[in-house]
């Protein structure tokens, strides 16, 4: 009974965040749900879409709903790793080098256009995203909890972009692909902009939860119940990506863990203290789409990762 009350508290906090965000952001409910789920599931998020579809706005709004330090890093081709993680600076007063922390030392880090910087700068994020620490000159600097990276990127075929390596993509819990808005959504965007609502309300979005709330909610997710047959369902889905002849690269065990955590987060958001197969299916695409690679033949045929994932969903029997 106590756990159900606590799960209800998570649901109420999530509803508060959604209401604040909806005052500014038009549509994109699925993206907002996934961003909030990532916060609960201790995961990072990669948001991909063409310029102008509110990727950065959505990330900033979610960050404003959390009462923790926030930083934004604009990735550019000339950005160096030290510009991200920090560097040692000589102090003439004591004759020693002191470590000056970079902007990645925050609780919520927005990395705008992450694929605008070359591999050397992208690699600076490997350690901090996985181990939540930075090692500089043999000294380890821990990040404060909670730590979350929200990264945006333009489609890789656009001018001046660098494809993220598979090892880094695998560190993102979700990849969210943001489409163009529907006609009615675009009309509503124009109406809100004409009335000055977007620019006016973004500064009025107030924090709904704090750092301690997030830490507590994450502990509560551990208590969300998942049946053995649902665990097996997750494992079978991931195994199918490794045995699928249409795929050159399947999903790793990190994907299985991501599905487990994300499914629990979506169950809690729905006010439930147990996971259903529907929760798993809801998060399957954003968890797997950036972790699998199609064979060259399938790419030439015009197939997509989403097509293969849909085929896998139909192939694996849903537990009853």
Quickly give the structural class.
Answer: alpha/beta
- What CATH architecture label of the largest domain applies? 3-Layer(aba) Sandwich
Between the first and last Cα atoms, what is the distance in angstroms? Answer: 25 Å
Radius of gyration in whole Å, from Cα? 20 Å
Count of DSSP strands: 13
Q: Can you identify the CATH class of the largest domain? A: Alpha Beta
| Mean pLDDT level | 89
Proportion of residues in β-strands: 15-25%
Low-confidence stretches: none
The number of distinct helices, counting runs of at least 4 residues, comes to 15
Shape call: globular
Q: Helicity range of the residues?
A: 40-55%
Main sheet summary:
5 strands, parallel
Order of helices and strands: HHEHEEHEEEHHEEEHEHHEHHEHHEHH
Summed up, the domain count is: 2
In short:
By secondary structure, the chain is of the alpha/beta class.
Describe, in plain words, how this protein is organized in 3D.
With 320 residues, this protein is of the alpha/beta class. The protein has two domains: 222 residues, 3-Layer(aba) Sandwich (Rossmann fold); 97 residues, Orthogonal Bundle (Helicase, Ruva Protein, domain 3), CATH 1.10.8.80. Helix content is 48%, strand content 18%. It has 15 helices and 13 strands. The strands form five sheets. Strands 3-6-9-1-10 form a five-stranded parallel beta sheet. Strands 2-11 form a two-stranded parallel sheet. Strands 4-5 form a two-stranded antiparallel sheet. A hairpin with a 4-residue loop joins β4 and β5. It is globular, with a radius of gyration of 20 Å. The mean pLDDT is 89.
């Amino acid at each position: 009974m106590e756990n159900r009350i606590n799960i209800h508290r998570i649901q109420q906090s999530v509803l508060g965040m959604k209401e604040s965000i909806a005052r500014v952001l038009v549509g994109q409910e699925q993206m907002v749900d996934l961003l909030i789920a990532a916060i609960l599931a201790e995961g990072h998020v990669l948001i991909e879409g063409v310029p102008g579809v509110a990727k950065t706005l959505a990330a900033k709004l979610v960050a404003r709903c959390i009462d923790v330090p926030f930083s934004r890093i604009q990735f550019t081709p000339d950005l160096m790793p030290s510009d991200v993680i920090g560097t040692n600076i000589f102090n003439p007063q004591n004759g020693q080098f002191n470590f000056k922390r970079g902007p990645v030392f925050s609780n919520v880090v927005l990395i705008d256009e992450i694929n605008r910087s070359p591999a050397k700068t992208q690699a600076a994020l490997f350690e901090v995203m996985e181990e939540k620490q930075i090692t500089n000159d043999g000294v380890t600097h821990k990040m404060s909890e909670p730590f979350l990276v929200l990264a945006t990127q333009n489609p890789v075929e656009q001018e001046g972009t660098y494809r993220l390596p598979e090892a880094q993509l695998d560190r993102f819990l979700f990849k969210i692909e943001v489409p163009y808005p529907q006609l009615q959504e675009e009309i509503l965007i124009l109406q809100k902009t004409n009335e000055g609502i977007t620019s006016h309300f973004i500064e009025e979005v107030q924090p709904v939860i704090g750092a301690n709330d997030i830490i507590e909610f994450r502990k509560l997710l551990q208590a969300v119940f998942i049946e053995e047959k649902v665990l097996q369902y997750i494992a079978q889905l991931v195994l199918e990506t490794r045995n699928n002849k249409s795929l050159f690269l399947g999903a790793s065990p990190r994907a299985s863990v991501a599905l487990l955590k994300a499914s629990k987060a979506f169950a809690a958001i729905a006010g439930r203290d147990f996971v259903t197969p529907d929760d798993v299916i809801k998060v399957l695409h954003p968890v797997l789409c950036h972790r699998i690679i199609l064979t060259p033949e399938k790419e030439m045929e015009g197939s997509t990762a989403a097509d293969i994932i849909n085929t896998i969903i139909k192939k694996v029997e849903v537990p009853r």
